[in-house]
């Protein structure tokens, strides 16, 4: 997320590259151009796991402007596309074709055999998309004609306010419901389940559900080694919650590391 780098005064101009790709929609043959990300540099991540730096997070997915098909993979075989045809052209999918690409990707993958945790990860990335779009719109509405310093100050201010838009709130709430199942799935590693418990608490905080979030992190802390990184993250979250802070924060900030 390049605006995050702007807020931190990073020099990012040469770190992210893009190219325009000509693409064709399956099922209707409509051609469109996609502004693909070829490379990006991350210097850290937010508490929700989103990479930040001279990078667009999540990595953008191409999406057909007509039927909303999302290119979850770079290449599809003809038989794969035929199997997907009734799903993509269904009334249910067409009703969500204006949703963020990763949201649509999570919908498709849930119905084509992906694991519960894989779908949750796609939905997490949809929250990143929704938050990025919301903050980007607010930044663009306020930055024309102001100095670089004022622009950085504005970005920091908006990041501190957090993301409260309808789409982010809806996606984050759906993700929370999925994480409740992921964290009790004993076929997954203990590390992955703890990471999802941290993520669930982050979603509660970002949604402004502070009482639930504090109880969540208090319970999680009781299951963690006191000197672990996870315990440090949980303690940091409880300080944010006490301050009624819904903002965007970096893992490095929580761990007391210079960025």
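Sequence proposed for the structure above (259 residues):
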């Amino acid at each position: 997320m390049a605006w995050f780098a702007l807020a931190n005064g990073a020099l990012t101009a040469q770190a992210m590259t893009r190219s325009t790709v000509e693409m064709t929609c399956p099922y209707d043959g409509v051609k469109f151009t996609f502004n693909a990300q070829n490379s990006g540099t991350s210097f850290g991540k937010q508490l929700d796991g989103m990479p930040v730096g001279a990078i667009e997070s999540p990595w953008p997915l191409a999406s057909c402007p007509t039927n909303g098909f999302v290119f979850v993979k770079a290449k599809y075989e003809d038989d794969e596309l035929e199997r997907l045809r009734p799903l993509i052209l269904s009334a249910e999918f067409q009703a969500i074709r204006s949703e963020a690409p990763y949201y649509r990707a999570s919908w498709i993958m849930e119905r084509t055999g992906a694991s519960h945790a894989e779908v949750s990860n796609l939905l997490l990335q949809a929250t990143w998309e929704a938050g990025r779009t919301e903050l980007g719109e607010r930044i663009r509405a306020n930055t024309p004609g102001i100095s670089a310093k004022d622009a950085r100050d504005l970005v920091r201010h908006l990041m501190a306010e957090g993301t409260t838009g309808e789409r982010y709130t809806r996606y984050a709430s759906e993700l929370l419901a999925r994480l409740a199942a992921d964290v009790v799935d004993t076929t997954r590693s203990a590390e992955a389940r703890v990471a999802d418990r941290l993520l669930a608490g982050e979603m509660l905080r970002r949604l402004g559900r502070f009482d639930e979030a504090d109880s969540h992190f208090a319970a999680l802390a009781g299951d963690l080694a006191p000197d672990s990184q996870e315990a440090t993250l949980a303690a940091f979250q409880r300080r944010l919650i006490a301050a009624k802070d819904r903002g965007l924060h970096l893992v490095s900030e929580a761990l007391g590391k210079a960025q």
